[in-house]
Specification:
This is Probable protein phosphatase 2C 68. One of its GO terms (molecular function) is protein serine/threonine phosphatase activity. It comes from Cicer arietinum (Chickpea). It holds the Pfam family PP2C. This protein is of the alpha+beta class. It has one domain: 4-Layer Sandwich (Phosphatase 2c, domain 1). Helix content is about 25%, strand content about 25%. The strands form 5 sheets. A 5-stranded antiparallel sheet has the order 5-4-10-13-14. Strands 2-3-9 form a 3-stranded antiparallel sheet, with helices on one face. A hairpin with a 2-residue loop joins strand 6 and strand 7. The protein is globular. The two termini are about 35 Å apart.
């Protein structure tokens, strides 16, 4: 295992998806695939070494106990590529110095061309490749995903941030979370909960807390989220949102917590407590797993 292997995995994933989107667009089977995107976070623990590759706004948080009093220390292992971060904004400005619309603020959030909150992702082919996704005279992106055709350089990238480190005895847990989760819960809040609460069901606890925050922001009750229609749906070339749907409260959330317990022989044995709040489809999540539990 190496960081180069993880880089290549994401390169191959992006190439495969772009080809899939191109075939669907050219053959008029499902042209909306050209505006579908996702973050991609890959983590491997190999021979006591943590390897991470990230593209998008997911985060990896490493919790450690340090010092005489074993105080909690928190590290964000790799950057998230959210346009609210100053360093990401500077990258976009430097890559498109002559485009005054490279960053547009929409509802208090900075977005690439007013469309994407993240600068790197898998997919969103129409913002990376003019041909064939925007040169065609009949191109019509779904409402909320439209971009003018006057760009020469790709607006988005699939280049991952990669990282590796040897795990130490002082490092106690890792939290992996998708962007939808970190929009509602801070790094410190998540780390404190994992450090102080029982392990059983910890990832579900984090997701439920994030949903409670989402409800509070909308001045709703937690049960209002659970009773809301579960997702938007895709109709033709347009993304149609149900009134008061779950996606109006929060984005899809995936959380995995790994505890780093020492084995007698000195190796690292991850104890995984994972909870998935999405379904493996090209459509929006219907969050069925949470209701089942």
């Amino acid at each position: 295992m190496s960081t180069e292997i993880l880089k290549q995995v994401i390169v191959d994933t992006e190439a495969g998806f772009i080809e899939f989107a191109r075939n669907n667009y050219q053959q008029h089977r499902n042209p909306v695939i050209s505006v579908v995107s996702s973050g991609c976070l890959i983590c491997v623990i190999w021979k006591d070494t943590l390897f991470v590759a990230n593209v998008g706004d997911s985060r990896v948080i490493l919790g450690s106990h340090k010092g005489k009093f074993k105080r909690l220390h928190i590290d964000q292992v790799v950057r998230d590529h959210n346009c609210q971060n100053w360093d990401i904004q500077n990258e976009i400005i430097e890559s498109h110095p002559n485009d005054h619309r490279r960053l547009v603020e929409v509802n208090g959030k900075w977005r690439v061309r007013g469309l994407s909150e993240i600068s790197r992702c898998i997919g969103n082919a129409y913002m990376k490749n003019k041909e064939p996704f925007t040169d065609a005279s009949n191109f019509e992106a779904p409402l909320g995903h439209r971009v003018s055709l006057d760009f020469e350089e790709p607006f988005l990238s699939a280049e991952p941030e990669v990282y590796s480190r040897v795990l130490k005895d002082t490092e106690k847990f890792i939290i992996f979370g998708s962007g939808g989760f970190w929009k509602k819960i801070t790094i410190k809040e998540a780390a404190y909960i994992v450090n102080t609460r029982p392990r059983n069901g910890i990832a579900k606890r984090l997701v439920m807390l994030a949903q409670a925050v989402a409800a509070l922001e909308r001045r709703k009750r937690y049960n209002d989220i659970l009773q809301a229609p579960k997702s938007s749906h895709v109709s033709g070339r347009r993304v149609v949102a149900d009134d008061g749907s779950r996606t109006d409260f929060h984005d899809d959330m995936t959380v995995i917590v790994v505890y780093l317990d020492k084995m007698p022989n000195g190796g690292v044995r991850p104890q995984i407590r994972s909870y998935r709040g999405h379904s493996n489809t090209v459509r929006s999540s219907d969050f069925r797993n949470l209701d089942d539990m």
